Request: fold
Amino acid sequence: MLNQQLISPLITALQPGQTVEQALLQMEDQEVAHLPLVKNGKLEALIAEADLLDANSNDTLESLFQYAPIIAVAAEQHFLTAVASLVGRQLTVVPVVTGQYEYIGSITAQQLLQYLAQMIGANSGGALLVVEMEPHQFSISELSKLIETNDAHITQLNTAVHPETGMLLVTIRINKNEVSDIVATLQRYDYHLVFYSGEEHYENELRQNYQHLMNFLTM
Reply:
């Protein structure tokens, strides 16, 4: 997915002749804390609500932000560049430009979060497992093979490096909810599971047997 494909039709740019008060009202209406300032079709700056709150409400944006930094992502770049810009600068809106800062629209933080959730399968069904390992130990083929021996397959896989330990965290979504056999298999091959969620058939069966016994004793 490219940045230009995630542009929101609901975000309208600020104009240089608008006052601080008008800009604040526009941000409130669009439920964002940042808006692009555009002049003659080109991005001039990304205006933050925090900066406007310290300014005179009757001042125009052009008089206040002549030397403001330009923050934007290129239209033809992958959308993860917009995610990096948004997170790194704590933005609510990321302007998208082409050529010499020609403004074509903006992406909202909500849009990026929704697409990220879709990309990593956050809303899809199936059990979730998180495995921790040294980066050099990571093998997609081996993980797939071990999971497939339990009549399951990987539907989503994402990796991240722990910022403190340097260990690789591999998050795996599978196409079934029952995880007991898969957990046992991974542990048998010395994989360190730091988290898993799903239905544990053996544990559930044990719990049911215990409940039946308690019901029998109380009769």
Notes: The chain has two domains: 3-116, 121-204. DSSP finds eight helices and nine strands in the chain. Residues 202-207 have pLDDT under 50 and may be disordered. Helices lie at 20-30, 49-53, 61-64, 80-89, 109-119, 140-148, 180-188, 201-217.
